[in-house]
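Milestone M4 deliverable, item 7.
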Amino acid sequence: MPEKSGQFPFTRGLYPNMYKDRLWTMRQYAGFTSAEESNRRYRFLLEQGVTGLSVAFDLPTQIGFDSDHSMATGEVGRVGVPISTIEDMEILLKNIPLDQVSTSMTINATAPILLAFYIVAAENKGINKAKLRGTIQNDILKEYIARGTYIYPPDVSMRLVTDIFDYCSNHLPNWNSISISGYHIREAGSTAAQELAFTFANGIAYVQAAINCGLDVNTFGKRLSFFFNAHNDFLTEIAKFRAARKLWATIMKERFHTTNEKSMMCGFHTQTGGSTLSAQQIDNNVVRTTIQALSAVLGGTQSLHTNSRDEALSLPTDESAKLALRTQQIIAHESGVTQFADPLGGSEIIEKLTVTLEKEALSIITEIDEMGGALSAIESGWVQNEIARSAYEYQKNVDSKKQVIVGVNKFMDDTEPDFELLEISSKAEEKQITRLIAFRSSRDSSECSNALAKLRSHAKGTDNLIPSIIECVRKKCTLGEISDTLREIFGEHQI
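Output delivered:
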């Protein structure tokens, strides 16, 4: 009997009718300049039809530095929103109904702190944390692989990951405790098969770490989510998403013996390929994004971000962000593809590609298992080297024109684009620092110090650290102060 959508191993989709019953979440990634400006962009996107928020944080926030730290100079608000205090988070979320809107936060090393900010901001609005819906990325292993925004050594970082698993299982029933990311692995240069393999190898490591801590896979497994890239090889990408569901369902059932079907489901967010965007002939990026978004929909994604045409040059303008959203809306409401679950299922080439990608990914996962698992493979540098090798091969193909990039190595022109780009004012950094200094001076410093002392004590033991971090936020400790307290105990990861 042929496999059906909504049935194990879910190759054809997680739900029987897929988008006929419910469209994917249209979640546009945004964050820049300041909490005020980012809040304005979120409200603009909600007005335009976005159905979920996705928060980008600036680099200082990602690596645990307050906006006035010397290491933050020149980086405040550049690639995301600066969040140093509970006040910043409240401004960011002003007039947004947190009990009605799902929020995804792309944050890893400081994920426990940003989650605490979000919870306390909701509390201050009178919203019960049990009603909160969203995702915290919380995927530290890929930071060691592909991005580099880590703080603490891997073993300590894994403790913080599992602390979030535990806390969310008990207090945030509708919150995804991790978004295991293949996106950044693909952006670093991996192949589609490597993206699957390295993502799931990391996922295996997280699940095993949680089990080792005594957590029930049938409980925390329900709130694991994934994050994949969509590139230009249309049919391969569709097959990749289908293979992903089958691979994860099989891993959870056969390796970890989960009996809860929801814990077997590979629910995932997709973002179109940032590395595929060209600075030349930027309107071509609209076409690329459309192809990539359609592959994600045909592949059965649960959530989608479409990149804006100008993101190879700057953060997107309002108009570019709106056009990117309209791309999703046109696919959803005009293309007709949402009327069928897995509409390309049964296609000879799609089925063949699905099986091929599954086998290739499994072979790599087996190789990683033989090394002792993802953590060992990362610490040895093997994963990073494999990605670098793939990236090099791809670039050679581009340089030789074996791989054509329209407008970049073929069909080029010398016309200078006449296009308005988003500019970040240096005055925004000054304003952020001024507010931060005022925040520190207005709080009860003894309450803050006592909360940090309790966190320090708990960090030396084995208690779940999330409640202590939440209490620090309630007592108005800053992101940098909380991060530095943990640095004192855990140290910093050195390459």
